[in-house]
Amino acid sequence: MTGSSSSSDDARTDGDELARPEGGDHVRTDGGEHANPFATVGDDIERKQRIGRVFVAVCAASTLVGIVALVVLLADVLLEAWGWVTLEFLTYPPSRFIENYYPGGRGAGIFPALVGSILLIALTAVFTMVLGVGAAIYLEEYAAESRLKGFIEANISNLAGVPSIVYGLLGLAVFVRFAGFGESLLAGALTLTLLILPIVIVSSQEALRAVPDSQRHAAYGVGATDWEVVRDVVLPSALPGIMTGTILSLSRAIGETAPLIMVGAATSMFRAPIEDVSGIPVPDLFGPFAAMPMQIFDWARLPEGDFQHVAAAGIVVLLSILLLMNATAILIRNKYETR
Amino acid sequence: MSDATEGADLSRAGSDIPAGKNLAVRGVFFACALVTVLTTFGIVVVLVDGALGFFREETLFELLASVGAGILAGSPTEALEALRSGLAARVTVTEFLFGTEWSPIIRPRSYGILPLVWGTMIIVVGSALIALPVGTATAIYLSEYADRRVRKVIKPTLEILAGIPTIVYGFFALSFITPLIQRFFPETGTFNAAAGAIVVGIMIIPMVSSLSEDAMSAVPDDLRNAAYGLGATKFEVSTDVVFPASLSGVIASYILAISRAIGETMAVTLAVGMQPNVTLNPLEPAQTMTAYMVQIGISDVSVGSIGYQSLFAVGLLLFAMTLAMNLLSLQIKGRYQEEYQ
């Protein structure tokens, strides 16, 4: 009781300050406070409603902060890149000289890094699909509710919180040096695989869990083995969900810069990591490679003012690919989400 | 379970499925799951091994090799000698943790990591000052006030912020935020902590808002209705009922967001610079732990040099900090989930 009366005291002083024109009313209710404990209720409600309105406004404004930041960020990148994303930019190797990027110059751009990133992501996709789906199948379809399963799952959720640069150190020590892959496409792809594996596993687990048990039981009922149930019943119906999750994780991998710096992705590669094996272009798994985020980092660090536009153009290419991947994932999800 | 299937398994007596196949398939899947455990193990071994090479003359594996060679040669004194020389101190842990000068490559060398930790802390505090209030208010708005359709649009839109590559935030800081700051404080340099803190803050808003919103939505409506029944206004329900009831989930989201800010790399490297600096002035350049690792990563330090080994020592500290935060967050969230079951 005492608590509430003291808070309504505070309230009234606040209210007075907020609402001078109604001062007369407040004097009257003040006078009646001791006589009638309920005299201030209406007054309080007005004040509370006012606070409530201010509060909603603050909360809505906060929500806008994020949205506005997103819009400003995208607008900034697009404005800086305006006129710089040309066909030459997509098809030429980078250059140290800004003149080469100008329209009518010799032509310079993001080509090796673009191809490098696409190959990197393709390789990562293969590795994560195998490992991630395999691990998810083990956890959802095979493992009993044991301490081992709990340990593996807790471990996965911890891995998801490890900074990406630490994965870079792991890749540097294990793939680049210990396994002897060198600063290669393969080392980069394996590092990115480990980085996104936790997310792929968790999303694949969700997709597997969404397959109704009745389908499994029906398959067992007609004599299928565990493996047959997984292969012929569970996987086909979980595949869209698995694909969606994997593509979304890959779209995180394609923008990752820090781990690639650690495994030594090249900052200035003038050719794409592709070999010619008797006329057929083959990805050079063990050779050096450039990747888009590395290339953007390189451009963004250059002091000459116009390189800022080149970096922005690189970002536009990177974000376009990201958008394409996310759109694909959403399309797959929407197409199969009718169950 | 297996008894039952074997008992009912008459039809498969003549089937062509080899009995061991199921087991083999299971083994393959288990191996995939094991990769994640090996990853954690690998991270710890790699960091400890490399960090030992920073603090001592030899890394863990070099030490094992040299001591092993001594033992194989049948000479315990040689092995002991190898152990002693390998364990000779290069950098003391005390100097590393409490020294105030960080210059592992440029002479005069010194190995106190405090300036880097300080840089990281400035970014963490600055970004938290932005993201925690904004994220919480956003979560309250989405959970308590917003129309369901509005929420369905805004939540994924905000999550786009979390999906934008961090290098893009670095660019945004350099090309937009810093010039904006310079307009008000002309003495601000190209690299400054404030721009880094602002972009990291923007980046982690969706972590706070999404996870907090989940926690607030999970508060049972009974609590809200009870408060309304007592005459509470919507504001009071939001701040005095829903917020406290979801507090553990909200705090878990704070910790995850802070952990992400600690490990954030590219945005702070580009925005804050590569200059270790203990200062309270957010308009000055600084260097975070992660930015230092990038600096080493893009320079030509030779493998095994103290500069190269310092990567792992800094990485180990970074890993320990984020791991502690993540475990704390899980702990808090675990307690919260029990509350309403």
UniProtKB/TrEMBL annotation, chain A:
Q: Where is the ABC transmembrane type-1 domain?
A: 114-328
Subcellular location(s) of the protein:
Cell membrane
Q: How does it sit in the membrane?
A: Multi-pass membrane protein
Q: Which domain of life is it from?
A: Archaea
Record Pfam families? BPD_transp_1 (PF00528)
Residue ranges, compositional bias (Basic and acidic residues): 9-33
GO terms (BP aspect):
phosphate ion transmembrane transport
The UniProt annotation puts the region (Disordered) at 1-39
Major subcellular location class: membrane
Spans through the membrane: 54-75, 110-139, 159-178, 185-204, 310-332
Coiled coil where?
none
Per its UniProt record, what InterPro entries does this chain match?
Answer: MetI-like, MetI-like_sf, Phosphate_PstA
- Which Gene Ontology cellular-component terms appear in the entry? plasma membrane
An example molecular function term from Gene Ontology annotations: phosphate transmembrane transporter activity
The record ties this protein, via Gene3D superfamilies, to: MetI-like
Q: Which UniProt keywords apply?
A: Cell membrane, Membrane, Transmembrane, Transmembrane helix, Transport
Q: Which family does it belong to?
A: Belongs to the binding-protein-dependent transport system permease family. CysTW subfamily.
**PANTHER family, per the entry:** PHOSPHATE TRANSPORT SYSTEM PERMEASE PROTEIN PSTA (PTHR43470:SF5), PHOSPHATE TRANSPORT SYSTEM PERMEASE PROTEIN PSTA-RELATED (PTHR43470)
This protein's name: Phosphate transport system permease protein PstA
Q: Which species is this UniProt entry from?
A: Halorubrum alkaliphilum
Automatic annotation (TrEMBL), chain B:
Pfam families per UniProt: BPD_transp_1
What positions does the domain ABC transmembrane type-1 occupy?
Answer: 117-329
Molecular function, one GO term: phosphate transmembrane transporter activity
Coiled-coil annotation: which residues? Answer: none
The membrane topology term of the UniProt record is: Multi-pass membrane protein
Task: Tell me which InterPro entries the record gives.
Answer: MetI-like, MetI-like_sf, Phosphate_PstC
Q: Which residues cross the membrane?
A: 28-48, 116-140, 160-181, 193-212, 306-328
Can you name a GO cellular component term?
plasma membrane
Location in or out of the cell: Cell membrane; Membrane
Highest taxon of the lineage:
Archaea
List GO BP terms, alphabetically.
Answer: phosphate ion transport
Keywords, A to Z?
Cell membrane, Membrane, Phosphate transport, Transmembrane, Transmembrane helix, Transport
Family, according to the entry, reads as follows: Belongs to the binding-protein-dependent transport system permease family. CysTW subfamily.
Q: Which PANTHER family is this protein grouped with?
A: PHOSPHATE TRANSPORT SYSTEM PERMEASE, PHOSPHATE TRANSPORT SYSTEM PERMEASE PROTEIN
Q: What is this protein called?
A: Phosphate transport system permease protein
Q: Which organism is it from?
A: Halorubrum alkaliphilum
